[in-house]
Amino acid sequence: MPKTLPTTGKPSADVLADLRAMHGDDAKWKDGKTFSLVYYAGDEVSQLLKDAYGEFIAENGLSPVAFPSLRKMECEVVSIAASLFNGDADVAGTMTSGGTESIMMAVKAARDFAKKTRGITAPEMVVPCTIHPAFDKAAHYFGVKILHAKTRPDFRVDLEDMERLITPNTALIVGSAPPYPHGVIDPISDIAALATKKGVWCHVDACLGGFFLPFAEKLGRPIPPWDLRVPGVHSISADLHKYGYAAKGASVVLYRNGGLRRHQFFTWGGWNGGLYASPSFCGTRPGGAIAAAWAVMHHLGEAGYLARAKSVLASTEKLKAGINSTPGLRVLGEPHAGVFSFGSETLNVYELGDAMDARGWKLDRQMDPPALHCMVTPAHEKVADVFITDLKECAASLAAGHPAPEGSAAMYGMVGAIGDRTQVNEFLLDFLDGLFERV
What we know:
Largest sheet: 7 strands, mixed
Number of strands: 13
CATH class of the largest domain: Alpha Beta
Number of domains: 2
């Protein structure tokens, strides 16, 4: 029977009790056993985010005229990001609702720039095969043909293959700092030089690493050039709600100058409802997300971000060493940040993932090659040793021939055996249909 609106309302205490009861089945990210989706920086930061978000929960960032406080906070957040990414005074940008919107805005801006300056009406973009699917989504929504370049054995994009795919219709080429699957930064300097050579837009997707890499570099970690110090980089996307530790959803998209950013905006002066000007994809823009991002930046400061980056790097090195010392397992590539994956030539890693699930760990599954994924946050410092112990025991059990608990291994095995990706897409559509059936 479909759910309907209650005839009479419940007391707020009862509603909150219902919410907390439903919350009980969710991933327990505070205990450090979840390796994706949530970037937890501690209870004090979480409370600040709630308070700051609540302070501006009703305000709408669509109108900076009505809410100048939000305009001020957004401009300051963008300015801080530009400084972290080594931009000059000409750098311009906006906040968005997340990495997908930042990416979509950069693709839209590059598409419109190519049409205006080069007359391109059938735009294309060239990206690494490790790129985030948000670029495929942007291509789908904005009518841009997307071409995926292969990677080298070190999991960085193959520059020669990228150049091979560039045509007179190429509007932009992209590199990641780093890509989600393996955490290995693409050769951004070479990609930007190729973009300059071909006269095309270069975007850097730093949604994952943007608010981590600057602090890792300050701590002495060797980080390849990736930001606005690199000549030829036109735009950068970077998520505040990842290693910026802001509330969801908050991200920034930056441009080398305001002239490039203008291609992101949408304006319409012919509406009988008045003059309409929208800086990004969304109309209504939640003021709480802007305020929370501003608040956490000013609360943590450089010292707070450095301390958390130091924790993440130390935990990452411990986890990688533990994985590499486990018979049959190896970390893939040479990751630059707190994100990496590991695979095996002797074990079924999907079964290993199911075995770890049974012990409460949540590891994302990956394909081509099969792997398990770790995204490390400060929450993992206290559980790294336990994780390694559990992993070694699960791997040893599988190696001895013991079966894994039932989980997603069969599904990933089936998907991996399907050569036609259109069939996989149909499977995923059916899966989504089932997830969002009415209750």
